[in-house]
Amino acid sequence: MSTFADLRLSKPLMQALEDVGYEQPSPIQEQAIPPLLEGRDIIGQAQTGSGKTAAFGLPVLEHVDPGVGEVQALVLTPTRELCIQVTQALRAYGQRKGVDVVAVFGGAPIRSQQAQLRAGGHVVVGTVGRVLDLVQRASLILHGCRFVVLDEADEMLDLGFLEDVERILSLTPNGRQTALFSATMPPPIRALADRYLYEPVLVKVEAKTLTVDSVEQFQLEVAAKDKPARLAEVLRAERPTQAIVFVRTKIRADQLFRTLRDTGMNVRALHGDMSQGQRDGVMLAFKAGRVPILVATDVAARGLDISTVTHVVNFDVPTSPDVYVHRIGRTGRVGRSGRAVTFVESRQTRELTAIEQHIGTTISQWTPGAHVPPAPVAERPRRHEKPRLRRRDDEPTSRLVLAAGRADGLEPADVVHALTRAAGLDGEAVRDVQVLERFSLVSVPREEAPRVLERLDGQRVNGAVLRAEELRG
Q1: Picking from 128-132, 159-163, 281-285, 293-297, which range would have the lowest pLDDT averaged per residue?
Q2: Which domains does the chain have, with CATH numbers?
Q3: Most buried residue among 252, 301, 313, 473 by CB atoms closer than 10 A?
Q4: CB atoms < 10 A from the CB of 109, how many?
């Protein structure tokens, strides 16, 4: 395994990687970054969660000149969720270099996106329809676009976007560098690559190394009528930092959401019948760590890439082995381990056997008490409980130091989540979070500091044990 230094990235990008806590490249990054830095076209076959955003994002940012005031790179994505996610990552990687990244997607005011493009935009990340719309309005000029990325091209095919993708590619310079990433390579995607990529390097990472090996997998035999109660049991025993519970239908997602909510759990639903605004709100809350449990359908969860997801529960057995691998790949992200529990009804043993044959391993039986959990599931406060403490601007605070930091995989959202979950604080009462390499700092209301210290000390977050004390002087 090489290091990012071996890949010969520039100092600003190396500093940015240190800021976000990346230490070693994933297989797709190790294989894709060198040819992209050399200016070669590539076809990358890898699933979500493999680290492909950094695999194409770092070379893109390396080539971009912040002193040139035009769009130099375009990243096309199939969904707005993936667009937002890629934009956030590229902004983090490019911050030290001063690269301006603009996101353009449907369902949001086009005028504000036009204003952002007028103000700058070295890199544009966009959904296919909105990019084409902005091009036709002459708000997005691609004459100087030297780098084009097609991210999750097979999903663009599934959604019927391939013709529009070709129209966009025809508007970019012939001498551009092109990278195409796709989890699968159906014939139309291969034909697209043949038409628009020049002698591409093929980079392929097998799905099994991305998902199965980094996820502990379990099955639980359960009668259909008992599944909601058993789910509550699994969540309380596993105590995930964050969990996605997959169901087959939108109706089931709503039903299960209400059931879990009524037991006092902090849970949200995500499915296709929700408005885009509702879905965005749920996604943002989950990504920020304010919601520990998400009940979702497969389609709604596309493009959901969150490193802090510790557990996946298949409330309904997936419809195919490929869907199973895709689901459990939502945990066990690069550099982290995860756990997956699949509920199996007696009539579904054939589907389970097909999954085991596909992944090449036998799925163990789940039993309570066999796992030391990373963190407790946050619950909604009952009516008789002390309400969550909110922030007042004039109240005195105490500074706490936690003996865990970036080296332990912690992010600011993890610290906030731990305080709101374990100590009952409202998120607004948590101030001035700093996550350093080996420890973290946070301010809380002074009168609540003793209780916070007592409850926080010894908690596990992302596998790290928090040791907390008050910072004196």
Answers
A1: 281-285
A2: 5-205 (3.40.50.300), 210-365 (3.40.50.300), 397-470 (3.30.70.330)
A3: 313
A4: 8
